[in-house]
Task: structure prediction
Amino acid sequence: MIPSATTIPVQQAAIRVRDVSRRFENGVLAVRSLSLDIDAGVFLALIGPSGCGKSTLLRMLAGLDVPTAGTIEGINREQISYVFQDAHLLPWRNALGNVTLPLELAGVTRSQQKERATQALERVGLADAIRRYPAELSGGMRMRVSLARALVTDPQVLLLDEPFAALDEINRQRLDEMLRSLWLATKVTVIFVTHSIAEATFLADRAIVFSSRPARIMLDSVIDLPPERTMRLRASPEFAQVQGRLFEALQRGEATS
Ligand code: ADP
Result:
């Protein structure tokens, strides 16, 4: 363990992952005996090399996949939203129509649907684009619609699987900044999968670095940076120091596998 790393105390964990493994039918052991506590309201980043089992873990948290051993407790699947790398919008519906969809499925009244979806689109900076169709939106805007759709139901837990990885650097940084301020405003529990150390440092208050498959926890650390995060933070010595710690753990995790 690195001396400057802070281990998270186990207290009032909202989500409890206990000895969870997932072996696929082809014999691949994607996750091996993983235990983890996640407090309510935290912004947690999961970092690790490609193929180490991050998405598999996220899918199990969401109930989209089932562990072959172990248990996951404390997560109400009705209260989860999931955001993928691809925005997954319906092309024949405009931005508003895409964001009202989960409310329609939940039986919310039409006027409420429209009001809440409009508000959600305003929160992600798309007030002027609510009538536009996915084909008329940029990649960054489509991802904003996807985020609005995830947040419109006021979930307790927001799971994001490399949501901005396909965007160019400027757009990615803008969306990081927006997501961070949305989290500050809502304090929804966020679990964010990324392989970008810079992104994890910028966004999260706790970061877990995994080794190569099957993932072991190389570092579980508080990210002690100010709550309000802006572009300027990325150039600060404190930011570089946190990044360095995460990078060292990632390197160790790749070397020892
Ligand atoms: P990550 O998100 O960290 O890139 P994944 O969780 O997607 O990793 O995958 C972990 C490992 O499990 C990889 O080796 C991947 O090829 C394998 N895997 C993922 N899904 C399946 C599946 N449905 N069947 C077989 N192997 C899978």
Notes: Residues 237-255 form the longest helix (19 residues). The pocket of adenosine-5'-diphosphate is lined by residues 24, 26, 28, 30, 48, 50-56, 213 (CB under 6 Å).
